[in-house]
Amino acid sequence: MKRFFLTLTVIATVGLVGFASIIAYVDPFFHYHKPIEGFPYVVDDQVDMNPGLARNMDYDGVLLGSSMTVNFTASSFERDMGLKLQKLSYNGAYPRDQYNIMEQVFEYHPSVKRVFLGIDELNYSADVNETKYPVTDYLYDNNPVNDVKYLLNKDVMLDYVLKPLVDRSDATDWDMIYPMWWKPEHYNLANVRLYYTPAEEIKDTTPLEEYIAGIEKNLDTNIIPFIEEHPDTEFTIFYPPYSILYWYDAKRTEDVDIIVGKLRFITERLLAFDNVEVYLFSGDEEIITNFDNYADYTHYSTAVCDYMVNCFATGEHRIDYSNYESELEALRELALNYPYEDIDL
Asked: pTM for the whole thing?
């Protein structure tokens, strides 16, 4: 009987070691190494896969931000800027999400040349420790003991090792990881209408100063330390071009001055650093009033993303101390005075 149980123990141990070895070899979350040649990886889990991508991929630039960054292609940065880019988006990202991934980036790639960070002012007054989704600690820390939660994970084996081998149709295009599900034919006013309901005309009574206090804490805790500690890295901050309907909602809630005030504060804080440049796309009327650029009232197409990369290369839409006030005022005037009644809602 003792020999029987010993045999079972040996078989179970060998089975577990084999199971773990397969996951470690394929490493679908890139926790230990970069992708192996020829495997049809499915890259669709931002929270769990981003730390591995940050650690083990080869790059000299990274793209950070919310779902406003997912339609960018890596090839556009290489074509226009000569950069090998790694996208590390988090849908609905809070500043703490950016902190968590920048820790990984700078620990493993301390000489990264460029950080492109899309800022959604809406999320920058959140609690400084708030993340959009719970962080999977064993994929972000350096403790090999708790890696067992990854190496012996049934779902990882089934969904990210075995399933891709059976059906390669979902294999990720590495040029655009984490893409939106919308296809090119979905970018039009008809599709935008499906997802848009005008905001109720209820005034936002929260004073600007209260928003600013939260933004300041987040910048000081989650963003600025990386800028200060890495003076040789260039940080390119950009405000995404939500469609004009975003500003229609802001006008209906009497929130335009609040939003512009938040953008002004963030801009002034970040322009104080020599290794920061800021781009304002929010008021590009040609983009934001053309609904062929949008699949809903905020998410824009890859063509718009390509245009923005070209602007990063040429300097178009860059704001600095000489023009940020006038550019923000122009945005405010557009938001307040646009003929929204002409939109076929």
From this structure: 0.95
